[in-house]
């Protein structure tokens, strides 16, 4: 499966005489095999994701809304005010969590949840070995 997720980036000119990077439109050319594998994995994961993702995780899971977390936090603050209790809140901003993901940890976690070895291998191939090449015109 080496190279299954290699992507080529073609820069298509938006204007007649492009001079700057903004004058180009990048088009990603992703292999068909990768697209098929990613779609199959996503469809199969959809069947179990509700049971492997914590109830407190409110985004990217069907029938859960990102605003649920905000509403819960708002209720906690209101209850603390009514009860005249002191309260401390932390707003944490996780920037680009995907970019800083520890894929080894994710693999170990999937193993702990009894995901099959082949499944985990396919996931690693999709997310862990991505390469991109810029195609030059000339």
TrEMBL record:
Name of the protein this chain belongs to: Cysteine-rich receptor-like protein kinase
Organism this protein belongs to: Trifolium pratense (Red clover)
GO molecular function per UniProt: kinase activity
Domain Reverse transcriptase positions: 12-127
Superkingdom of the source species: Eukaryota
Record keywords: Kinase, Receptor, Transferase
Record bears the keyword Oxidoreductase: no
């Amino acid at each position: 499966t080496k190279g299954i997720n290699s992507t080529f980036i073609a820069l298509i000119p938006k204007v007649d005489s492009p001079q700057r990077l903004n004058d180009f439109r990048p088009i990603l050319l992703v292999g068909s095999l990768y697209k098929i594998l990613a779609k199959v994995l996503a469809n199969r994961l959809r069947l179990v994701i509700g049971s492997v993702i914590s109830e407190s995780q409110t985004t990217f899971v069907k029938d859960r809304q990102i605003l649920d977390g905000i509403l819960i936090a708002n209720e906690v603050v209101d209850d603390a005010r009514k009860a005249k209790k002191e309260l401390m809140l932390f707003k944490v901003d996780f920037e680009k969590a995907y970019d800083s993901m520890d894929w080894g940890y994710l693999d170990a976690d999937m193993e702990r949840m009894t995901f099959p070895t082949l499944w985990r291998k396919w996931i690693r191939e999709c997310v862990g070995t991505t390469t991109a090449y810029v195609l030059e015109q000339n």
